[in-house]
Design brief:
16 strands; globular; Purple Acid Phosphatase, chain A, domain 2; alpha/beta; 2 domains; three-stranded parallel sheet; 476 residues
Length: 476
């Protein structure tokens, strides 16, 4: 009782300072040590240069040659993967009901990520709907759809941009140490003998393209070999998984890597699961990082062929919901009445986990997928607001990213500064007619090209470097 009185009175004193100076000092002490948003276009972040380097290495050297997903399949202890406890989790199917939350694209700015994590951590949320009040309990299960930390996966970004905000929102157990490595998962708390008995919030997640820039190394260390994300328990052992939920519902978490598709071993696991365990009248929620239904429509492409084949030939109408991130907005489409078989009933994108905002109005005309018609049920920001925000970038982008002009101007100067003495540009203006000026301009340009090749080695080296980097950066 004495300890309780001391703790309560001390806490009240800390939150009720006597003077303004004490208040300012206290505010600095209590302010969370969060990272700022990633300066994507400033050109001054070393993390961004490392991201570009890692992406070039991953795309050029490892794509098609080494795949961590195949390594995970080779390390599986159970020959029949559809029965493997490393991939299939059925500890939640005995419940009468289950609430879960889904987010994606976290770990950009500390404040924005914490704002989402704090909402997820609340015991309940009260939402006003017309004249009624809806009370939503905290999800027993948190599903994260990839891109856990930006701009590149490493110990710093995962710890500071991802784990730190979630730990502020919901603290892990007092006995847990951040440096701990889980040798045999799940590492259950004392007094809990099996995963079914654990009643606290749990988390499962899939990697996104940003998590694959280092070949999935950081994701494996911090997700598959750690036991806690803040106060959320992490039973997960692999980068993809299947969850059996109550009342005949399933969750398939797919790992698309940098290919935008699942590998053959992953396909085999989920296909056998559909044949052997998923009932004829069961319902499946499919999670991928990329919403290829939107991106394929926008780019006029066809990606994720293995995922599409799994949906059409094995799930056969049992996929009721597809969820994805990658696009940093909220958008939900539902299938309208159709004479054709409905492969997926609902399509949902929720990339609002704390990253910067992507536009929605560019997808306003999306209406069809898998041969079925869809209509927009909810979108944030609205198409109108998205257009207005995009128009604001004309002026706001330059003001926010003024460093980009400085860096870009310097790069341009390095590329062209040795051309100016050779161009004789003032002579062009002295011509009497427009035809003479145009001819002088093209002659000066042609002569300048040969001058660069013969004498201006700095500009030549800069141009060749830029062309080489651009060539290797473009995916094949």
């Amino acid at each position: 009782m004495a300890n309780y009185v001391v703790e309560r009175s001390t806490g009240w004193a800390l939150t009720h300072p006597l003077t303004i100076s004490e208040y300012e000092t206290l505010k600095k002490l209590l302010k969370p040590d969060f990272e700022d948003m990633v300066p994507w276009y400033s050109g001054t972040s070393t993390d961004l240069f490392k991201t570009v380097f890692d992406l070039m290495i991953s795309v050029t050297l490892f794509v098609g040659r080494f795949d961590m997903r195949m390594m995970q399949a080779a390390m599986n202890k159970t020959p029949d993967e559809s029965k493997s406890s490393d991939l299939l989790y059925d500890h939640l199917d005995g419940k009468d009901e289950l609430w879960f939350d889904f987010i994606a694209d976290t770990g950009d700015g500390g404040n924005s990520t914490y704002a989402i994590a704090r909402l997820l951590a609340q015991p309940s949320l009260v939402v006003k709907s017309d004249d009624s009040r809806l009370i939503f309990p905290r999800g027993e299960l948190l599903l994260i759809g990839g891109d856990l930390a930006y701009p590149n996966p490493c110990s710093f970004t995962y710890e500071r941009r991802f784990f730190c905000p979630f730990e502020y929102a919901l603290q892990p157990p007092a006995w847990y140490t951040p440096d701990h490595i889980a040798l045999e998962k799940p590492e259950l708390p004392l007094g809990v003998s099996e995963l079914r008995q654990y009643s606290g919030p749990q988390c499962f997640m899939i990697p996104g393209n940003h998590d694959w820039f280092d070949g999935l190394n950081t994701f494996m260390r911090y997700v598959c070999h750690k036991s806690w994300l803040g106060g959320w328990f992490l039973p997960q052992k692999r980068s993809y998984f299947a969850l059996k939920l109550p009342n005949g519902w399933w969750v398939f978490g797919l790992d698309q890597a940098l290919h935008g598709d699942i590998d053959v071993y992953q396909f085999k696991f989920f296909a056998e699961l559909c044949q052997q365990k998923v009932g004829e009248h069961d319902s499946v929620i499919l999670i991928t990082h990329e919403p290829n239904w939107l991106l394929d429509w926008y780019w006029g492409d066809k990606t994720g062929k293995n995922v599409t084949y799994l949906i059409r030939e094995y799930l056969k109408g049992r996929c009721k919901l597809r969820m994805a991130g990658d696009l940093h907005h909220y958008m939900r489409h539902s299938c309208t009445e159709s004479k054709e078989p409905v492969h997926v009933q609902h399509l949902l994108v929720n990339g609002c986990g704390g990253a910067f905002l992507h536009p929605t109005h560019v997808f306003e005309n999306f209406k069809e997928c898998y041969g079925n018609k869809y209509e927009t049920k909810a979108v944030y920001p609205s198409y109108e607001d998205s257009s207005k925000i995009a128009l604001g970038n004309i002026l706001k982008f330059r003001r926010k990213n003024w460093q980009f002009d400085v860096i870009g101007g310097f790069v341009y100067f390095v590329l062209v500064f040795s051309m100016f003495p050779q161009c004789d540009s003032f002579r062009i203006l002295h011509e009497d007619s427009w035809d003479g000026r145009v001819n002088s301009f093209f002659n000066a340009t042609w002569n300048a090209i040969f001058e660069i090749l013969e004498h201006s080695y700095v500009s030549l080296a800069g141009v060749l470097t830029l062309l080489t980097v651009s060539f290797f950066f473009v995916p094949t």
